[in-house]
């Protein structure tokens, strides 16, 4: 589902899009509707999480949890904003939850086999220098700055949708994006 | 708030990196998600408009009915009447007591006479009996 970036601040019209219709169908017990929704959004979510975790397995786990949250929330869903804003609200909550869990997890509980497999997976996902530098630069952004700039440029959400998903004002979102870009430009200046 | 310059190669590179989606989901990702969803309890079907209405209307109707019953009960309960008139016997008793007490005042005023005291008591006794 290619979605053109909408870098505007105009209020998003409330219309029943295909994803909202799918969610209503899920609430009525339609399993195929859930499958099609997963198919449509998996690349979006996995890559969104990947930019925060830099790890495929974690990104997929977070995407799966977000889809399950969506499944649970289906009966309560009301199309107040757009579906994009809704799903990224859930995604952001999942991300915050994962940070919280990670901060509580004792280091000695990490299985050495898991660590070895992780190293292998990281090697398999070896990226170019600029990709590495980009990941480091993204990781050094604040959570709000990173989420805001990814939602804008990677996911094509509007400022309204980002503000809704991040539970913030539009002016805050613009400030975060502006600062994020300045930071990225500074960190990647050697690649110009 | 323009923070990018499309002519700047670095800005273009950053835009490309930000917009990129380098990962493709694992081949079994969808199946894993669906299997995990199957383990969850099925989402409860949304309540219909009628059931929503009943959900709110029933307690409201019960409250209104209770209020009506209460009002009706208050309206039909006889008020506790305070006696507005005394019976003839009560009036007579009050009169006699007053008379008897006035006799005692005379006793206090005058010197204490045993005859007068006896007369008063006899008069009281006679009146009470009658």
Layout of helices and strands, plus pairs?
The complex is a heterodimer of chains A (about 190) and B (about 130).
Chain A: H1 18-27, H2 31-53, H3 56-73, H4 83-104, H5 112-124, H6 129-139, H7 143-153, H8 159-166, H9 170-187
Helix pairs in contact in A: 1-2, 2-3, 3-4, 4-8, 6-9, 7-8, 7-9, 8-9
Chain B: H1 9-19, H2 29-39, H3 49-76, H4 88-109, H5 114-129
Helix pairs in contact in B: 4-5
Helix/strand order of chain A, N-terminal first? HHHHHHHHH
Rg over alpha carbons of chain A: 18 Å
Structural class of chain B: mainly alpha
Under CATH, the topology of the largest domain in chain A can be stated as Rna Polymerase Sigma Factor, Chain: A
Overall SS class of chain A? mainly alpha
Helical coverage of chain A, percent range: 55-70%
Biggest sheet descriptor of chain B = none
Number of strands of chain A: 0
Number of helices of chain A: 9
How is this structure best described in words?
The complex is a heterodimer of chains A (192) and B (130). The model of chain A is unreliable at 1-10 (pLDDT under 50). Chain A is built from nine helices and no strands. Chain A has 192 residues and is mainly alpha-helical. Chain B has a domain at 92-129. The longest helix of chain B has 28 residues, at 49-76. Classes of the chains: A mainly alpha (192), B mainly alpha (130).
Question: Quick summary of this structure?
Answer:
The complex is a heterodimer of chains A (192) and B (130). Chain A is mostly helical and 192 residues long. Helix content of chain A is 70%, strand content 0%.
Highlighted features:
heterodimer; A: 192 residues; mainly alpha; Rna Polymerase Sigma Factor, Chain: A; Arc Repressor Mutant, subunit A; 0% strand; disordered N terminus; B: 130 residues; 5 helices
